[in-house]
Amino acid sequence: MPIEIDIAHVARLARIELSERQLADYRAQLGVILDHAARVQELPTEGVAPTSHPLDMVNAFREDIVRPSLDRDEVLSQAPDATDGFFRVPPSLDNE
Amino acid sequence: MKWEPVIGIEVHVELETQSKMFCGCAVDFEAEPNTNVCPTCLGLPGALPVPNRKAIEWITKIGLAFNCSISERSQFHRKNYFYSDQPKNYQISQFDVPVCHDGWIDVTVDGETSRIRVNRAHMEEDTGKSIHVGESGRIHSATETLLNFNRAGVPLVEIVSEADIRSAAQARAYAQTLRTVVAALGVSDAKLEEGSIRFDANVSIRPTGTEAFGTKVEVKNMNSFRSLERAVDFEILRQADILDQGGTIDQETRHWDEGEGVTHSMRSKEGSSDYRYFPEPDLLPIEVTDEWRNEIAATLPELPAARAARYMGLGVDADSATSLAGSDALTAMFQSSLAAGAPAQVAANWLTGEVTAWSRRAAIDIADSALTGAHVAQLAGMVAANLLSSTAAKEVLGYVLAGEGDPETVAAAHDLVQINDSGALESAVDQVIGENEDQFARLAGGEDKLIGFFVGQVMRVTGGKADPRAVTDIIRSRIG
Ligand SMILES: [Zn+2]
C-alpha cells in the first residue's frame, strides 16, 4: 500500500502546475518510491555511521584566490530579459 | 497580566574573504552589477561548488570566540526555496550538523551581566540583491525586479542565539557585543549600514513566572542597533495588547518600518520541513581536526571582553573600559595615549567623552582625525599642571581634533593657558585689593560673600586666565 502524500503541496513547493490526472499519477508513483524508502529504513543500521556522501573523503577545499568571472554581456545574452547590466524578472513575492 | 519577553537573535555575518564561498568570483560590492558571476554562483547546470578553506577557518574562529564547540565533522545541506535572488532555487547551508554549536557570550546592561547561550553558528552562502522597480519603490507594488548576483555565493555565517534574551535593551546589547567581537576577529567589516552584518529577532511573550514559550514572531529589517531595540520593544507591546484582549498571536514574519515605528506582517513563515533540506551531494563533509582547530585558536586576537577587563585592571571604570575595548580606533588611541604617558582613567574619559562626541558630530572616524596618543598625554599633563582649566581643555581638544596642532601650540595660539606663575597671580590680587580698599576692609571684617567680587575682578584683570581656586587662596592669605 503506497504511502499517502499531499501531492498538491509538493507541486506547489516546486512551483509546477499539474492537471488532476497528473496529480493522481504522480501521487501513486511518488508513493511507491516512499514506500520503498520506508522498507530500506527497516534495515538494522545500529552501529553503522550515517553516510551523506558515497566517497570516503573530506575537506576538498579551494584556496581563497580570485579567478576571472564570466563576461557580463555573454551572461546576460543567455537570460530571457536583461537591462542596464541587471537580469530583469517579474516582480517576485514568496507566496505566489 | 504581566508578560515576560522571550527573545532570540539570528545574526548573518558576511565574511570578508577575497573570493566567494564555492567559486573563485571576487567578493567586491563596489563592482558593476553582475560582473562577479560564474557558472557556479549562477547555478548553471553542471557547475560544481568547491568550498573556500579560509571561510571554514574563519567560521571556526568565530565559533571559538563565542565559546562554541567545533564539530569534528559537519556537512552542507541544500535549503530549497524559490526566490529570484537565489539563482539555484536552493541555498547551500547547514542543517543538523553546523560547524559550531553550543557557545555563549556575556552581555551587560546597566551594569548587570547575563550569559546568553549561542545555539549554533553555521556556514552558508549569501543571496543576490534585488531591486524592486515600481511607482512607490515598495515590494508589494513592484512591476518588475532587477537582479544583481555579485553578492550571490558570498560566504555568510549565521549565528543563532538561544531564546535567553529578556528585554529589548538586552537584545541590543547582545547585538552590539556580538558585532564588536566579529569586528575584532577581522573576518568581516561588520557594518550594519552596508548590510555586512544583519540582525533578525524572534520575539514571543509569556505570563511572567511561567515556563512554556508563546508563539514566536520573526522581526526583520532593522538596520541599526537603535531600530533593533525599538522593533523588539514595539513587538513586545503589540503582542501583549493582543493577548490582553483575549486574542492569539500568529506565527509569522514581520517587517520593521523605521519611519512609522511599527512592524508589518510580511508573509506566513514556511515550516522548516517545507525547505526540504537534504545533504548537498556535490560537497564532501568538513572535518576540523583538533590540530587544525588549535592552529586557528592560536590566531585569535585579544577579544573585547578580555581587553575591557585588562583596562579595568589599569583603573578605568567599567563603562569606559567596555566602550574603549569595543572600538578598534578607540583601543588604538588609548594604547598610544598610555604609551605616551597619559594616566589611564584621564585618557579613557577624554576618549569616550569629548573625542567620541566630536567624532559623531563631525562624522569623522577617530582613526582619521588629527589626534594622536601623544596629544592626549600632553593635554592630560597640561590639565594636571593647572595650565588649562577643564573648560579650556575641551576647547583645546576641539582645535587639536580639527588639525590645528598639538595642545601646547593651540592653547598658546588661542590664548587659553592659565596664569600659573604665583608671583603674577599675587600681583594681580594685590592690584585689585589696592583698587578696592573699602570692599577689602568689609571682606576682612567678615562679609565673606565679597570673595566672589574679588575673584571676579582678578579674572577680569587676567583676561580670564587665572585659576579661580588659586586666586581664592591668595585673597584669603591677604585677609590673614
Ligand atoms: Zn562565481
Write a short abstract of this structure.
The complex is a heterodimer of chains A (96) and B (480). Chain A has a domain at 1-43: Histone, subunit A (Orthogonal Bundle), CATH 1.10.20. Chain A is built from 3 helices and 2 strands; from the N terminus they run αααββ.
Walkthrough of the structure:
The complex is a heterodimer of chains A (96) and B (480). Chain A is mainly α. Helices cover 36% and strands 6% of the residues of chain A. Chain A is built from 3 helices and 2 strands. The two termini of chain A are 34 Å apart. The model of chain A has no long low-confidence stretch (mean pLDDT 87). Helix content of chain B is 39%, strand content 21%. Chain B has a 9-stranded mixed β-sheet with strand order 2-6-7-10-1-11-12-13-14. In chain B, strands 5-4-15 form a 3-stranded antiparallel β-sheet, with no helix packed on it. Residues 20, 23, 25, 37-38, 40-41, 153 of chain B line the site of zinc ion.
Question: Which SSEs are present, and which pair or pack?
Answer:
The complex is a heterodimer of chains A (96) and B (480).
Chain A: H1 7-13, H2 20-41, H3 72-77, E1 82-83, E2 86-89
Chain B: E1 3-14, H1 53-65, E2 69-70, E3 73-74, E4 77-80, E5 90-93, E6 100-109, E7 112-125, E8 129-134, E9 142-148, E10 155-161, H2 168-185, E11 197-207, E12 217-222, H3 225-244, E13 253-257, E14 262-267, E15 278-279, E16 286-287, H4 290-297, H5 304-313, H6 318-325, H7 328-339, H8 344-362, H9 373-384, H10 390-401, H11 407-413, H12 422-435, H13 437-444, H14 450-461, H15 468-479
Parallel strand pairs in B: 12-13
Antiparallel strand pairs in B: 1-10, 1-11, 2-6, 3-16, 4-5, 4-15, 6-7, 7-10, 8-9, 11-12, 13-14
Helix pairs in contact in B: 2-3, 5-6, 6-8, 7-8, 7-9, 9-10, 12-14, 12-15, 14-15
Zinc ion is lined by residues 20, 23, 25, 37-38, 40-41, 153 of chain B.
